[in-house]
Amino acid sequence: MRSLPPLTALRVFETTGKYLSFTHAARQLHVTQSAVSRQVKQLEDYLGVPLFVRLHHKLELTDAGQQLLAKLEQAFNLMEVAVQELRDPNQRQKLNLLVPPTFATRWLAPRLASFHSSFPELELSIHNSASEHSLFDCSIRFGHTAKPSHYSELLMLEQHLAVCAPDMVDKAQQLAKSNASLLHILDQGERLPVWENWLQAAGMSDQVDVSRGMEFSTLDQVINAAINGAGFAIIDRHMITRELKSGTLVAFSDIEVSGPCGYWLDINAERQGLAKVIRFSEWLREVTAESPTQAH
């Protein structure tokens, strides 16, 4: 026999902890604010520890509250999955993924025929915004380091090349005179330092003014601008395999810079044991190992 407080009290606390508001929790749960406050107080009495610090018009979680909230969110996520799988048998075969848009378009999409051939019983649902779905089976993330509290595996480091359209190769040899033609990628409003890193590796840091040039909000925009002759770009080789092969983009230097960022596979602890997640993870490792990282 499990020794647990009422499930209702746990659900009320989880909602209140998520929003840090009795009023907001009451609205979400369709009950009165006093009912929410009473359930939380009963849970605190049962546990013998305070879960919230009650300030004027504000709630804060105590250390005990933070610890309990993290565990309850995992538990309720598992319960949600179990219920969904029974309500909709097809849900067992759907894999919900969170993937950066350029990675999804340029690296993942061309390989999905291989995935479907290997696992025809699985259907992928690919999203590029966390707001589009409440619970993902796993995600692919661009970043520097592993994600805390997750199984987090580095799939590939970026391999940066200096590229341009074929008819701009001669101009690229005078890069110091073409500062205004540098193409930059933005990440959360800031330019990624890919030009700085490449110029340092090329021994040209004091020759080119990286503060100049055009900037774009997605890597896809940078790639298209470079293809159409708008300027010179530092781009991850993995994202322009097709363009390098067809010659619509060419490398104008042998200098290639690895990292420091890359693409990570992140899986919540409660999703690691799912067969569909295991299959996708194993397939992803195989195709990543086959992905070209050097010029051919």
Question: What would you say this structure looks like, in words?
Answer:
- One of its GO terms (biological process) is DNA-templated transcription.
- Residues 5-62 form the HTH lysR-type domain.
- Keywords: DNA-binding, Transcription, Transcription regulation.
- This protein is of the alpha/beta class and 296 residues long.
- It folds into 3 domains: 7-87, Arc Repressor Mutant, subunit A (Orthogonal Bundle); 93-155 and 265-290, D-Maltodextrin-Binding Protein, domain 2 (3-Layer(aba) Sandwich); 157-261, D-Maltodextrin-Binding Protein, domain 2.
- The chain has 11 helices and 11 strands.
- The relative contact order is 0.13.
List keywords for this structure.
296 residues, D-Maltodextrin-Binding Protein, domain 2, 3 domains, 6-stranded mixed beta sheet, sequence-specific DNA binding, transcription regulation
Major sheet size, sense and barrel closure: 6 strands, mixed
Could you name the CATH class of the largest domain? Alpha Beta
Low-pLDDT runs of 5+ residues are none
Q: Indicate the CATH topology of the largest domain.
A: D-Maltodextrin-Binding Protein, domain 2
Topology:
Layout: H1 7-19, H2 22-29, H3 33-47, E1 52-55, E2 58-61, H4 63-87, E3 94-98, H5 101-108, H6 112-118, E4 123-127, E5 138-143, E6 150-164, H7 169-172, E7 183-187, E8 190-191, H8 194-201, E9 214-216, H9 219-227, E10 233-236, H10 241-246, E11 250-268, H11 275-290
Parallel strand pairs: 3-4, 3-5, 7-9
Antiparallel strand pairs: 1-2, 5-11, 6-10, 6-11, 7-8
Quick recap:
This protein is 40% helix and 24% strand.
